[in-house]
Design a protein that fits this description.
- Strand 1 and strand 2 (39-45) form a beta hairpin.
- The chain is built from nine helices and 15 strands.
- It is elongated.
- Helix 3 runs parallel beside helix 4.
- The longest helix has 15 residues, at 3-17.
- It starts with a helix and ends in a 5-residue tail after the last strand.
- The strands form three sheets. It has an eight-stranded mixed sheet, with helices on both faces.
- The protein has helices spanning 3-17, 54-62, 88-95, 114-121, 132-137, 139-147, 177-187, 197-203, 255-263, and strands at 31-36, 39-45, 70-75, 99-104, 125-127, 151-158, 163-166, 192-196, 220-224, 233-235, 248-253, 269-274, 282-284, 301-309, 312-319.
Amino acid sequence: MTAASDGRWLAAATRLALRGRPASNRNPSVGCIIVQKGRVVGRGWTQSGGRPHAEAMALQMAGEAAQGAYVYVTLEPCAHRSERGPACADLLAEARPARVIVGVSDPDPRTAGKGIERLRAAGIEVATPHCPDCAESLAGYLTRARFQRPHVTLKLAMSLDGCIALADGSSQWITGEAARAHVHSRRALADAILVGGGTWRADAPRLDVRLPGLEDRSPSRWVLTSRDVDGAQTIAAPHDIARIPAQYLYVEGGAQTAASFLAADLVDRLEVYRAPIVIGNGLRAMGDLGLATLAEAHGRWQPVERRKLGPDIFEAFVRTRGES
């Protein structure tokens, strides 16, 4: 197969991996596809609680057809044995595929390179192409490994002139039904959701998922506040998110909470829903970020997605960070 077809199969594996998120936490949600002569003979994704792993699920489906096949997996197969299941590198070595294509090397020191080495030692060809889609699908796991905190998505819903509410605080609804449904689909991919204490006390938001069939995907609820609150867990400052047991944290605001996360440079993905309305003298979507010069605002965000949701526009941006 060509490099282009390898990329397409890996991209398909990332879509499978979405099925395991966020139920796989604290394990990464991995996708795996086994291809024999251009036909899919096995597929899998990390199951609830982290087991079975994607490779084990795909190999079970493929059976003997895995021998001589191509295996596409978004994350390096694990090399460490566990009481909960065997190492995926060993399972693959036993199945004897012709080739394993790995989207991202595992930063876990128990595997980091060892899974690939074990496959090559078994006489299996291993390819490690650059796969941004795989890295994006594993963003929560990789952020945990790199920064010891969840991957943070900040969501903002605003008018064309950057307001989130009327001057008196009325905000229901800024965006339309399609945009609100999309927000619920994004909540369903998060382990935890957070709002500021002012929003919690003023609006008593449910912060759940209300899409048919996805109600059980509602994330745990957290509040950024210096006070005790009922019905949710609390943190006192943005950097306290390190103790939230999640890979993916979805932050919904309000304005001061959004500003505090941005000022602390803790936002990895920014999702903006913009309604075709003008409010004028309303509450602004963002508080002070503490920027000293305009130059500090440039070069931080890369647009990655834009779509129309009914009358509204959805845009997503990712934080550009250098390697460390």
